[in-house]
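Incident log, structure service

09:12 report received: a user says their structure output differs between two submissions of the same chain.
09:20 pulled the input from the user's history:
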Amino acid sequence: MARRIPQGAVEEGVRLSEKTTLRIGGPATCCITAHRSEDLAAAVQTCREEGIPWFLLGGGSNVLFSDRGFEGVVIVAKPDGVAIAPGNRLEAASGLELMDLVRLAEARGLSGFESLAGIPGSVGGAIVGNAGAYGRNIAELLESVELITEEGEVAWVPPDSLEFDYRESRLKRSSEVVLSARFRLAEGDRDSISSIIRETLATRAEKHPPHDAATAGSFFKNLPPETPGGRRIAAGLILDRAGAKGMRVGDAYVFEKHANIVVNRGHARAADVLELTRAMKQLAFDHAGVILEEEVRRIGFTPEELSRRAVQAPATV
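09:34 re-ran on a clean worker, output below:
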């Protein structure tokens, strides 16, 4: 593999706690950091050709790795180029931090990204998970996405082909890889855009942990609206009403200002997070009769480990 990867980009046995925002995870067999799109494509293609298990990691948020780690190659996507195109368009590489893209659009007086301000992670990860907030999502702004297809080709595809849904896309289920994306924005007033971004960041700061806290972000997806066209029901609201704030297993605990965020106090294990989030799901079910679905991707666990933490309905008599 090294023959196709720049020298110094490959690390063996690196702990995934060093690569994720939750700071949890055992060692990967190998970790490759790709700073150029061509290096990213080469790493993916080599793993495919040699039959090596691999996982693509962006900014490191929205993921929980097993305490055992990952038996295979973790490819960290770090291409971070960005270009301005005519017609209020921006083209960004997959490894660019989403907030950097928000700031670039702000500086150019381009509107559309304001509600995404403060969301952690990379552009590629945001596209895969269709990141969003306050009723907006990144798929709405996409014009096209550059992918490494499952056949190993590089192609630009329209967003309609990627089956976007709430915090979902086809990319979560396929082995396709985002290289870059083009966004079409609207011309706006720079002062107004900056004001909305400040308000968005202030609102997040009131409810979310500080930037240096170890967290993966919102752990569960919000629930579908009760009526068509209505607003989704916040998982955090359900958990808050059920009394989840402050719940703790080991060094993993539910943030005191947001019941849908799990924080690592310093030495939490993946097993602690699994046990804590199982208890949170059970609490939501017992309180509101709903089964929450994980937004955070859980990697390196056996099906048995995950199924042992399924919600249990009360016994009937």
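09:41 both user submissions now match this output. Likely a transient worker issue. Closing.
09:42 reviewer note: The chain is about 25% helix and 25% strand. Residues 82-193 form a domain with the Uridine Diphospho-n-acetylenolpyruvylglucosamine Reductase; domain 3 fold (CATH 3.30.465.10).
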